[in-house]
Write a structure and sequence with these properties.
Strand content: 35-45%
Number of strands: 14
Largest sheet: 12 strands, antiparallel
Radius of gyration: 26 Å
Number of helices: 6
Length: 353
């Protein structure tokens, strides 16, 4: 009888063991001083614009090769992280049949033509600078044990100053304090502020105020998997127009004459966002603390009034991914030497007289 009771107790404990294993986990960044990782981030953005029944499509792809290095970790677990934007490669499908534009920060610099600041060359130059903003530069930030940036250091502020905003892109400013913080945090994945069990949920939100279309992004996060080696978080959420959107930081610098600038401001006031959705997945290592794979898709429909030009509707989709890479993969491929064209053989004259 005692043996039966002992067997029952052991069986009960064995059945309970998975429950203990699936208890709450306090996920933290485990990265050590000196640790480094190479990551590649790709962002695909597309817009379909409908104005008075006429459709226009634009799109761009930006690939950033990044190296993150932990320079120091203090006694509270706050890391000093250096981020190198090693190389940026981009392409843009221009509207109205204007063709495609490609850029590579590692390519030899092209000679800039003299422009009056308002011509097509100046506009193209501004877009290229926006797409490659920060390329070849490095900056540092303080990052807490939950992977959140608590402070951008002076070199980051100098980078923002030197870029001068870097022109504008489809989603807004090419570079801002928010975008630099997001870039650094993305290297460590999505971490909950408090311990959570597998299947547990938490929320976070942020306000994208850097672009021409301010939005509130609400994220619903779920710890889908976790073990001693890694963890996986699923992402869902919504994109909404702020109740009282702030004017873009450069609202007083909108290019064009006063009438055009006023029209753009009125368009933003009339803007309505619909069907804003967020979906994604983030996997990170618990061994070295860096993200291993992540993807995020944001989509929305936007309607606004263009004054005398009528109403305008846009469908916007942004797909972002991040994965590990190597220094060799980040380097531009060497151009193969051109083979000399074979010269036709000289006609033979023969030997005779």
């Amino acid at each position: 009888m005692n043996h039966q009771k002992l067997l029952s107790l052991v069986t009960a404990l064995a059945l309970c063991a998975p429950g203990f294993a699936q208890g709450e986990i306090d996920l933290k960044v485990t990265t050590k001083k000196g640790a480094s990782v190479w990551l590649v981030e790709e962002t695909n953005s597309s817009q379909v614009i409908d104005m008075q029944g006429q459709e226009m499509e634009t799109g761009q792809t930006i690939t950033k090769y990044l190296q993150f290095t932990v320079k120091d970790v203090d006694d509270k677990g706050v890391m000093t992280v250096e981020t190198k934007i090693v190389r940026v490669v981009g392409s843009m499908a221009l509207p109205m049949g204007m063709g495609d534009m490609e850029v590579d920060s590692a390519a030899p610099a092209e000679e800039e033509e003299e422009e009056d600041g308002m011509g097509m060359g100046a506009m193209m130059g501004g877009m290229k600078k926006a797409m490659t903003a920060g390329a070849g530069k490095a900056f540092t930030a303080k990052v807490d044990a939950k992977g959140k940036v608590v402070e951008l250091m002076d070199d980051a502020k100098e980078l923002l100053k030197d870029s001068g905003g870097g022109g504008r892109m489809m989603g807004g400013a090419a570079m801002s304090e928010e975008s630099l913080k997001e870039l650094v945090s993305s290297a460590f994945g999505e971490l909950p502020a408090k311990p959570v069990a597998v299947g547990g949920k938490w929320e976070r939100s942020d306000q994208d105020s850097g672009g021409r279309m301010p939005s509130n992004n609400k994220f619903d996060l779920t710890l889908a998997k976790a073990d001693a080696e890694s963890f996986e978080v699923t992402i869902a959420g919504t994109v909404e127009k702020p109740a009282a959107p702030a004017a873009p930081a450069d609202a007083d610098k909108i290019e064009g004459d006063d009438e055009q600038a006023e029209m753009q401001r009125e368009m933003m006031k009339s803007m309505q966002m619909k069907n804003g959705k967020i979906a994604g997945l983030c996997k990170a290592s618990r061994t070295d603390g860096f993200v291993t794979e992540a993807n995020l898709t944001i989509s929305m429909d936007v309607e606004m009034s263009a004054g005398q030009m009528g109403d305008m509707a846009m469908s916007i989709k942004i797909v972002k991914s991040m994965k590990r890479t190597t220094e060799a993969a980040a380097a531009p491929k060497k151009a193969e030497p051109k083979k000399d064209e074979a010269k036709p053989a000289a006609p033979t004259t023969g030997g005779g007289k």
